[in-house]
Structure formats: structure tokens, C-alpha cells
Amino acid sequence: MAAAACSAATESRLAPLRTALGEHRFVAYQPTALQVHDGRVTPASSASIRADLEVLRPYFDALVTYDALNGAEQVPAVAADLGFRALLIGVWDPFDDAQVDAALAAARAHPGLVVGVSLGNEMLFGQRRTQAELAARLDAIRTRAPGLALSTTEPFHIWLEPQAGPLLSRLDFLLANVHPVFESWFRAAPDQNAAGFVVDVTRLLAARHCGPVLVKETGVPTAPSGKGYTPARQRSFYEALQHAFRSTPQRAFAWFAAFDAPWRAADWHPVPGEHPEEAHWGLFDAERRPKLVVEIIPRLERRRVEQPDSGRPTDRPSVDRRSIDR
Which of 50, 99, 100, 147 is 20 to 30 A distant from 232 in Cα terms? Predict the structure, then answer.
């Protein structure tokens, strides 16, 4: 199966993103200091964001974020200064003009770094908005940023439903959450099966849309162990996924997530009930200490290149293609 070719205008917007997917390693990043308790937001500081990104930079050169405010508006400048090569900015609520304004301002300020914007995360799955509302909002933002690649993020099954067609036609690329851990067979299956599931789902998604597909979320939490979630299982899954899923300009995955978020165990979720695993998705814990999985992430070798926005030379890691891809 193969998707139809994108229009010339869409391909023009997608060129930086396609390059980033094929050449760089993405990680889904939420600042460790940005927390939400009972609806009250604790914003992240520039210093804490820098400390986060300094930990990530030896292993990753591309970021996917979830918020454009609450301190996250400082991510683009810090990321550029530390030599990250690509940034997909997340807008938590694309119907909030202030959040959209912040994302578009960041894209204008860092044109060599920002390769696209995700307008919302699981808004359909969480029943916060309808497909028609999202489609209309995408059209409105497109008029303001005609050269910027736009998408929104949903669990993969949303994009495979026939009724998703009108919304898919508005997206330049697909962002999908593909979690084998939520499938009934996961606990008893080998990790090669879980990795193959992600690859197979991505192939189906690629047949539904002309643009590239980025699996924004996948992985294994490291707790609670009673559900089969352990640091060893997280490492084993990603080891299998690295071998099964090779990045290309059309298909790639982001490592999820950069850091643990203990506050999320008590956060609101689209699915009712307790979800303690939400606190433990990180490759690093909330104190920025590496977990077992970090041992199998190839470090990025350093070379002298130009910063994407300033043109100033800086020492920066790049992918060592002699090591495991991704």
C-alpha cells in the first residue's frame, strides 16, 4: 500500500521535517520543572530547561514538546544554543490564542530549528474537541503560517478510522501515539512482537497519508512492576525497536519520554481510573538520572558545525552511522 503524493505546497513545508526525520534522533520532552497539580501550573525556568537539555544532548539532537507556554516558550532558544538540530513545537490547547501565538513566534524566531507544530495532544481521544472543530482551527492557523508544517497528535487508531479523512486532509504530516503496553497481549509477548507492532502500525498509517509519519509516543514505563513494567523491560523493548524500526524521511519514532513526571500519576487522563504508570515513562528519572535503557542509546559523535539560526560555529554531536541506527 502507498499513499498518494503530497501537493507541491505541502512538500515545500515538509522539506525541513523530512530531513530531520531521516538524519536526527527525536525525544519527546516536557520540562522536569513544568508540573500541573489540581489544575495549577508550575512553570519551568530557563535554568531548569537548560539542565534538562544538557542531559539529553549527548543522545538526542531533535525534540518534540507538548506546550508552548508555562516556561516552555524558552525551549527553542535554549535548544538552539545547545546545538539541537530540529524542534517540533507542541501546543497543548490550539484553541488558546496565546499558546498558538507563542508557537508561531518561536517558529519565526528560529526558522532553522523549528520544523513543525503539533496542534494539540489527544484532543479527539480525550473528547475535548471534535474533528470538525480541529479541522477548522487548522485551516485558520494555516492562513497565519502558510509555510509551516502543521499536524495534531492522536492515538494511532483514530487515524485509521474512515471518518478521519477530512481531518487527515488538513495535516501536513502524521503524529501518532503507538503504545504496545496497552494491548491485551503485551505482557506475555516477546519484545520483538511489541517492536513489530509499532512498525506494522506505522506502515498502515503511512498508507493513509501522503506526508511522513512520526510515532510521537511509544515505549514501556519502568513501574509499577506488578503490571509488567520494569527498567529491564523498557530497555529490552527499545533494543528491539532500534533494530526493527529504521528512521527514514518518511517514517521515524521519537523516544518517549525524556524524563519521569511523578505529578502525572494524579493528573487527569482521557481514560478514567488510576494510571500510576504515567509517572514512569522517562528514559531518565525526575532527578535526571539515567535508567538502564540509556545504556543502549548510541551517543552522538561530536563535530564542528554551524548553529541553525545564528550561523555561528559550535561543537555539536551528530549521529554516528557506524553505530545502531537511531
Answer: 50
